[in-house]
């Protein structure tokens, strides 16, 4: 399984300038190469190299290997969409390989720049230190918020899947980010408060409209997304640990339908939640794989309207965002927990199953009714 390590570089002022300069020129070279590729409709690395190699080296002063990387980057982008002339921002990623990037233990990276090779200190977390040995010197140099990082793709082993005795169903929401079928929930309150606070701040800044205000807005956006990402890491870690400790697998909703299921008023809110749900799900998925915990996806249709006790499905069952009250059998429950139980055991025995064309395959009849603890 492939994982990306994000390693922070700690260049001094002169090194910082050299990296930035190299980045700018590398991307200028990419734009030059992209023009040729598009004009001549050429997606062949070999042909393109013959055509532009000397010009790039002379015009941009790039080293041989950086020139090859620039050509490869353009070919990759061009192959993705041949109908478009691709453009590279001055702060686009620089692609390094083991000939132009090497590591001095865990403390520093030796990186080729326009000013020659520079040895730049790095900062690594514990996890990264552990995994570092698996890197092969293939990395992207990126600039985020004025900070340089190396993004290193490493191969990490996955545990053999554990045959699950049972499943934990996980319901994703806005008020509660995640609720599971055991009745445990991971509150979205702090996330929602932070989102609101950032939203207000952004609105105030956007109203000012100045250049510095716009930059400030960008900074806030990134801060907010880092916060959300961190929350998603914490929640996914807890869920996967619990599943592993109790010998269970995890069932999640297939997010293709998430927007139909969630009540959202504003489009940007929908975007925010959709994206955040997707991130949480992908975190759960890869952490589970790493630990050998089985993950299955189920059709989310009606999970929030169906009664987990009797299977009666009606919109009126869900009285409010948080309260479920079955109009048929009278079950009263927390709405998220009821949904999570439906996800853990999606179809009730008494309920006729209607096949849908876009059924994802995870939707199955469980032989026994799910056990339910009200509350
Ligand atoms: Zn019922």
From TrEMBL:
<comment type="similarity">
    <text>In the N-terminal section; belongs to the transposase 2 family.</text>
</comment>
<dbReference type="InterPro" id="IPR051399">
    <property type="entry name" value="RNA-guided_DNA_endo/Transpos"/>
</dbReference>
<keyword id="KW-0815">Transposition</keyword>
<dbReference type="GO" id="GO:0006310">
    <property type="term" value="P:DNA recombination"/>
</dbReference>
<dbReference type="Pfam" id="PF01385">
    <property type="entry name" value="OrfB_IS605"/>
</dbReference>
<dbReference type="InterPro" id="IPR001959">
    <property type="entry name" value="Transposase"/>
</dbReference>
<keyword id="KW-0233">DNA recombination</keyword>
<dbReference type="GO" id="GO:0003677">
    <property type="term" value="F:DNA binding"/>
</dbReference>
<keyword id="KW-0238">DNA-binding</keyword>
<comment type="similarity">
    <text>In the C-terminal section; belongs to the transposase 35 family.</text>
</comment>
<dbReference type="Pfam" id="PF07282">
    <property type="entry name" value="Cas12f1-like_TNB"/>
</dbReference>
<feature type="domain" description="Cas12f1-like TNB">
    <location>
        <begin position="277"/>
        <end position="343"/>
    </location>
</feature>
<feature type="domain" description="Probable transposase IS891/IS1136/IS1341">
    <location>
        <begin position="157"/>
        <end position="246"/>
    </location>
</feature>
<dbReference type="InterPro" id="IPR010095">
    <property type="entry name" value="Cas12f1-like_TNB"/>
</dbReference>
<dbReference type="GO" id="GO:0032196">
    <property type="term" value="P:transposition"/>
</dbReference>
<protein>
    <submittedName>
        <fullName>Transposase</fullName>
    </submittedName>
</protein>
